[in-house]
Amino acid sequence: MPDFEKKEILFRRTLELAKNGWGNTHPNPMVGAIIEEGGEVVSEGHHKRAGSPHAEVAAISNLGRSPIEGASMFVSLEPCSTHGRTPPCVDAILKSGIKNVFIGCLDPNPEHAGRGIKILEEAGISVHLGSKEIQAQATRLNFVFNHNMLKNCPLIALKMAVTKNGMVAEIQGVPSRITEAEARANMMHWRRFFPAICVGAGTVLSDDPSLTARFTAETWCPLRIIVDSNLVTLGSLVPDRVIYTDEFADRTIILTTSHGLSRQDRVSRAKELGVRLVKVAEDETGRAKPDALRSALNQFEMNAVYCEGGPTLARSLLNTGNVDYLFKYRSPKVFDHEQALSGPDFDDFLIKVPITESLGEDHLTHGFL
């Protein structure tokens, strides 16, 4: 049996393997698995996408033979014990003959947690959980999946980049560079993770964003959700926005209200562009209700969204308790123009068990609220 240091290394490798499924496994978790024989890793596997073999099955299949006596499996998440799109992974482990299983963390679903372990142990397999540190890392990796299981609803994440003095634009209505290259690359990394991205009408008008994740070998487009209560982004004097005309236009959806839908000229323009309009509940002022976003995610069968809205949308979501997870990027810059636009007061929102990262001269703090 591997010693503690060796086990930690193998567990960390399962987490690295799990990340190969980054953004592709929703609504399933990211999972990595390793088969170890005599101190050597002989096979690896990870869950690539929903409907494909799970990590444990992939590792067994990739081995191409039966594991030798005494072989061990390391897996980042408790093997599933119920039938879904694929058979239970505990069955595959039992059939493989593996007698030692090391698990990074428990299944977050209260109805399933520990069930896979019990099945394995009752079959005579030795099961071990990772250290507290490994359990914490393995659990945090799948924070979206965990939220879905525990809360039975989609996760809403908010991303905001602010200057040292809390500003989000040097001049209101004009695009401003707040963070530098390393932080912006990190934002792309997170865009690639989420199945949907959301902004408000103000961001569409001022920034004309593409809302895609752009990399050297790939341009990834999640479902793009625009909150535009009055369809101002489709006004006759507004030039065509990128998100309504690019190659991914069919992945753009506008959440609007009865007020917006009463503007026939704007509705007609949406039809001409092929942009889908979805009516949502409105408040007494005629604006889309903050909880309309979560309702829309359920309608679109999306388990999470990455909100990059401006301060208006951000405040609306924060002040009504509709933000589950916060990404706060902070720049050392100071915007002191008289028309500078301030962001939300984040001091009122405590991040639980925050993760902090230095990204060049910028800093990121993220975690559950």
Q: Any overview of this molecule?
A:
31% of the residues lie in helices and 23% in strands. It has helices at 4-18, 55-63, 89-96, 115-122, 132-141, 143-151, 181-193, 201-207, 242-245, 258-261, 264-273, 292-300, 311-319, and strands at 32-37, 40-46, 72-75, 100-103, 126-129, 155-162, 167-169, 196-200, 213-214, 219-220, 223-227, 252-256, 276-279, 304-307, 325-330, 341-342, 352-359, 362-368. Strands 13-12-11-8-14-6-15-18-17 form a 9-stranded mixed sheet, sandwiched between helices. A 5-stranded mixed sheet has the order 2-1-3-4-5, with helices on both faces. Strand 9 and strand 10 form a beta hairpin. The model has no long low-confidence stretch (mean pLDDT 94).
Topology:
Blueprint: H1 4-18, E1 32-37, E2 40-46, H2 55-63, E3 72-75, H3 89-96, E4 100-103, H4 115-122, E5 126-129, H5 132-141, H6 143-151, E6 155-162, E7 167-169, H7 181-193, E8 196-200, H8 201-207, E9 213-214, E10 219-220, E11 223-227, H9 242-245, E12 252-256, H10 258-261, H11 264-273, E13 276-279, H12 292-300, E14 304-307, H13 311-319, E15 325-330, E16 341-342, E17 352-359, E18 362-368
Parallel strand pairs: 3-4, 4-5, 6-14, 6-15, 8-11, 8-14, 11-12, 12-13
Antiparallel strand pairs: 1-2, 1-3, 7-16, 9-10, 15-18, 17-18
